[in-house]
Design goal:
Strand content of chain A: 25-35%
CATH class of chain A: Alpha Beta
Number of helices of chain A: 2
Oligomer: homodimer
Largest sheet of chain A: 4 strands, mixed
Number of domains of chain A: 1
CATH architecture of chain A: Roll
Structural class of chain A: mainly beta
CATH superfamily of chain A: Phosphoribosyl-AMP cyclohydrolase
Largest interface: A-B, 48 and 48 residues
Order of helices and strands of chain A: EEHEEEEEEH
Strand order of the largest sheet of chain A: 2-1-6-5
Number of strands of chain A: 8
């Protein structure tokens, strides 16, 4: 399983580094942005601890860390919507990763059955922030897939 | 300036809500994923507190919260690479926002001069995680723009 070295103390060194030293936060987590390799659509955002990141790099399938359940989960284990990782990219200060994935199953990332978790636009009217759906298509029925 | 109501205690209500009740974390922050409206390319990841999110929605230009400087910053104020926000989208559990932006200036989001902060792919060899550049183009010279 890949091992990660500690980040350098001088953050300026991170920009051009050729060694991957992910900067986990004070809870040991890094943010993962997940996009569909077909068209760059943003599918979801999740968190990884070092073990989830290692498992992702080792197996080629996305693994995340659930903050509510305090556990590693392999994306799609229940729904069948696995995420095959085609490329992992990190950012300038190495505190986030971008996963370019191909989905199996229903090709949907969201637990609501939608392709992407980002399906509502924010609008503001008279000082109130509202949401308007931009995607009502469901690739699967959550009740059938996850049960009641 | 838009005001945000508190999220409901029952998280299941967030999925289909038509009211935007962003779930700021224990530090009062929400994650923002920023993409180029032209081709969905992921440009950067940043954080917002309630004020930065309000300013973004009110002015139509991206404002973030710097955790290292403990201050709101308007993206591009120094470099000229402002981010005009074409759409704000939130995810199922409302703890992240996706900004679709048009950039002004050099059309680059990264302080290194590159279009995107995500310019290095992670590779693993013999259990070590290395980085390989996938974008060496610089839209501007950081030393000229930010000074030494």
């Amino acid at each position: 399983m890949p091992h990660f070295s500690k980040p350098p103390q001088d953050k300026a060194l991170l920009d051009e580094a050729t060694v991957f030293t992910p900067r986990f936060d004070d809870k040991g987590l890094i943010t993962a942005v997940v996009i569909d390799v077909r068209d760059n659509a943003v599918l979801m955002l999740a968190h990884m601890n070092a073990e989830a990141l290692s498992l992702t790099l080792e197996t080629g399938f996305a693994h995340y860390y659930s903050r509510s359940r305090n556990a590693i989960w392999k994306k799609g284990d229940t729904s069948g919507n696995l995420q095959k990782v085609e490329q992992v990219v990190t950012d300038c200060d190495q505190d986030a990763v971008l996963l370019k994935v191909s989905m199996t199953g229903h090709a949907a990332a969201c637990h609501t059955g939608r392709r992407s978790c980002f399906y509502r636009a924010v609008t503001t009217e008279n000082g109130a922030a509202a949401l308007a759906s931009i995607d009502d298509d469901r690739a699967f029925d959550p009740e059938t897939v996850y049960g009641k």
